[in-house]
């Protein structure tokens, strides 16, 4: 028995004593793992020893030298050994660029503060007690990068036992972080009711405002916690207003406290749609028509966000339905702009002015038409809104709807008697704007409603000019089919073909040529449509733009151009010109072999155009 040995199956190591063998076997198991760094240990005692390195203050003693790799140690003799071994020369310590003692002490204290606040964040009561027992007055005042103290952190995390410990050590209950927040609003934001009660009972200032002017009640209103708001209000009644008989008897500044933009808690609750908080504040006597710095009432904010229940409650409490903001918007303007149909109906039922003028003389109907809210347009018209009211630039709701391509709104306005040819300050009709936007459906509705197909803007531009300027070929075809003149001139003597020549869409040029447009007309600069297709660099156009097909079409149609234009032609186009106009290009080089398939491909693609204008000969 005495000579019996035990061999480890994993490593082959031999033991004569069973207890040694058992201890060794546990080292292979490593069942005990650290929850912080995931290291594993075979023995529980080893894990506990390792865990203490995470829990207790680490690396207090650090090397003073700036670039030293020494990690630091909790033992002073380790640092002494390091200095002796690595920073001693000729038996003397070479201080060199060592950190001053005061700075070293500050760094040590900073490290302790970081570790202390981390323990507070984890709620490790035993370690926090150890820190406070060793250096309570200093640790209590410790702050992190955001200026948060242990009290701020405990309030957010809900560590009530630690808060009690801090209060016993005399921490200032109204201590401020970097953003001028006390611990109370942080607890309110995180909905830590027990913490809020403890702080209030120990004298926390419920009226304290942060750097933005927000009080604790602002925070409660913002998060929409009616229970939290009630807790704050009850504390105010019980501790600071025992002589008052009801909420409505309390001094108004408490309920109508303003932040830096003059928003009250009621504004914030209405903006977020927190009905319970709004009702509570109104029951307390909060002013229902209080104004922000931009003259917004709570009703404005609720209407803008579409909070129907809040809007109804505010109206029931006597809110003014036509209060104007700094930009003269009423709640109805804001609701119509966002398309909140139910709110619009409720406001109209409450007596809201349907034709109130906002900035630039926009009515609610203008805003609804601009945004394309067809469902809102109907109730506004039914409520007596003027269908042809004008903005400062003389835009009607029909102009705005046509410009944005809201065909459903256009149909509603036309059926309600809107003037189809109303002019803006620049003499634009709704058809001009629909043509510029390229909205075929809207253009059809306007023409069916009797719109003039050839109205002139202040610069004598027609809808056809605008359609070709933007390359909207389908709208242009519609206008031509409805009798639009193919060659009207604007103030620059440009025809629609001039506009089409500037685009990259040869189909626009082809459409006008099929409609027998005059292709040799000159504008005020003396340029023909052909000039605009070939003189790209002269007008700062992108040289990579491809106007080849447009140029070929105009050349095939016998379009004329000046000698100045010739200098802008590439050799390829000169050969093209010589092919279609041999008499005019006598003496030019036409022997380029690459031009033959190029011309053949074009002749096949636009055979009808080439044939039509070839028959006209050179007399054009």
Mean pLDDT across every amino acid position:
81
Whole-angstrom Rg: 42 Å
Sheet-strand content, in percent, reads: under 5%
Strand order of the largest sheet: 1-2
Distance between the termini: 127 Å
Give the helix level as a range of percent: 40-55%
Count helical runs: 34
Topology:
Layout lengths: L5 E2 L6 E2 L2 H12 L2 E2 L6 E2 L2 H12 L20 H11 L1 E2 L2 E2 L7 H22 L2 H16 L9 H8 L2 H9 L14 H7 L3 H9 L14 H8 L2 H15 L11 H4 L9 H8 L2 H10 L13 H8 L2 H9 L14 H8 L2 H9 L14 H8 L2 H9 L14 H8 L2 H9 L14 H8 L2 H9 L14 H7 L3 H9 L14 H7 L3 H9 L14 H6 L13 H9 L6 H4 L4 H10 L14 H11 L1 H10 L4
Helix pairs in contact: 4-5, 4-6, 5-7, 6-7, 6-8, 8-9, 8-10, 10-11, 10-13, 13-14, 13-15, 15-16, 15-17, 17-18, 17-19, 18-20, 19-20, 19-21, 21-22, 21-23, 22-24, 23-24, 23-25, 25-26, 25-27, 27-28, 28-30, 30-32
Pfam families: Ank, Ank_2, zf-C2H2
Keywords: ANK repeat, Metal-binding, Repeat, Zinc, Zinc-finger
GO molecular function: zinc ion binding
What would your notes on this structure say?
The chain contains 34 helices and six strands. With 620 residues, the protein is an all-alpha fold. A hairpin with a 2-residue loop joins β5 (88-89) and β6. α21 packs antiparallel against α22 and α30 (548-556) packs parallel to α32. Among the domains are: 1-48, Classic Zinc Finger (Double Stranded RNA Binding Domain), CATH 3.30.160.60; 56-98; 517-620, no CATH class. The chain has a two-stranded antiparallel sheet. It has a two-stranded antiparallel sheet with strand order 3-4. It has a two-stranded antiparallel sheet with strand order 5-6. It is elongated, with a radius of gyration of 42 Å.
């Amino acid at each position: 028995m005495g000579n019996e040995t035990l061999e480890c199956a994993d490593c082959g190591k031999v033991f004569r004593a069973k207890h040694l063998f058992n201890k060794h076997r546990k080292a292979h198991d490593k069942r005990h793992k650290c929850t912080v760094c995931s290291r594993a240990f075979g023995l529980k005692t080893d894990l506990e020893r390792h865990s203490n390195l995470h829990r207790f203050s680490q690396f207090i003693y650090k090397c003073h030298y700036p670039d030293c790799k020494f990690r630091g140690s909790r033992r002073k003799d380790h640092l002494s050994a390091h200095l002796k071994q690595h920073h001693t020369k000729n038996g003397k310590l070479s201080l060199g660029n060592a950190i001053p003692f005061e700075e070293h002490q500050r760094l040590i204290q900073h490290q302790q503060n970081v570790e202390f606040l981390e323990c507070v964040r984890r709620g490790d009561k035993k370690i926090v007690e150890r820190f406070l027992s060793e250096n309570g007055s200093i640790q209590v005042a410790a702050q992190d990068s955001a200026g948060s103290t242990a009290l701020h952190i405990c309030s957010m995390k809900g560590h009530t036992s630690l808060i009690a410990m801090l209060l016993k050590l005399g921490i200032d209950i109204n201590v401020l972080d970097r953003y001028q927040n006390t611990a109370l609003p942080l607890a309110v934001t995180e909905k830590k009711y027990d913490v809020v009660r403890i702080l209030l009972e120990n004298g926390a200032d419920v009226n304290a405002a942060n750097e933005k002017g927000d009080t604790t009640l602002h925070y409660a209103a913002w998060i929409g916690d009616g229970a939290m708001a009630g807790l704050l209000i009850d504390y105010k009644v019980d501790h600071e207003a025992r002589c008052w008989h009801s909420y409505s008897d309390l001094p108004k500044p408490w309920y109508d406290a303003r932040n830096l933009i003059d928003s009250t808690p009621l504004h914030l609750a209405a903006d977020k749609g927190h009905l319970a908080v709004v009702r509570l504040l109104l029951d307390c006597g909060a002013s229902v028509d209080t104004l922000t710095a931009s003259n917004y009432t709570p009703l404005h904010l609720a209407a803008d966000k579409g909070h129907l229940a809040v809007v109804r409650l505010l109206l029931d409490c006597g809110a003014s339905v036509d209060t104007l903001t700094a930009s003269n918007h009423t709640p109805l303007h804001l609701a119509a702009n966002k398309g909140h149909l139910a709110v619009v109906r409720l406001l109209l039922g409450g007596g809201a002015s349907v034709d109130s003028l906002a900035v630039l003389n926009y009515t609610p109907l203008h805003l609804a038409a601009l945004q394309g809210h067809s469902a809102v347009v109907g109730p506004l018209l039914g409520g007596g809104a003027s269908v042809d009211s004008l903005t400062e630039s003389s835009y009607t709701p029909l102009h705005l709807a046509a410009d944005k391509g809201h065909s459903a709104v256009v149909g509603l306005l036309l059926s309600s008697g809107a003037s189809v040819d109303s002019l803006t300050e620049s003499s634009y009709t709704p058809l001009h704007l629909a043509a510029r936007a390229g909205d075929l459906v809207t253009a059809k509705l306007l023409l069916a409603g009797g719109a003039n197909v050839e109205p002139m803007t202040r610069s004598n531009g027609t809808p056809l000019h605008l359609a070709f300027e933007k390359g909207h070929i389908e709208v242009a075809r519609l206008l031509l089919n409805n009798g639009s003149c193919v060659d009207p001139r604007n103030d620059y003597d440009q025809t629609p073909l001039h506009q089409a020549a500037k685009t990259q869409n040869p189909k626009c040029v082809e459409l006008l040529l099929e409609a027998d447009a005059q292709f040799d007309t000159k504008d005020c600069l003396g340029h023909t449509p052909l000039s605009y297709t070939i003189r790209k660099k002269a007008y700062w156009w992108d040289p990579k733009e491809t106007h080849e097909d447009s140029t070929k079409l105009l050349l095939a149609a016998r379009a004329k151009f000046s000698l100045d234009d010739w200098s802008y032609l590439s050799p390829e186009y000169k050969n093209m010109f010589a092919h279609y106009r041999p008499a005019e290009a006598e003496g030019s080089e036409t022997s380029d072999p690459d031009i033959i398939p190029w011309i053949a491909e074009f002749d096949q693609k636009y055979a009808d155009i080439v044939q039509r204008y070839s028959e006209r000969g050179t007399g054009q």
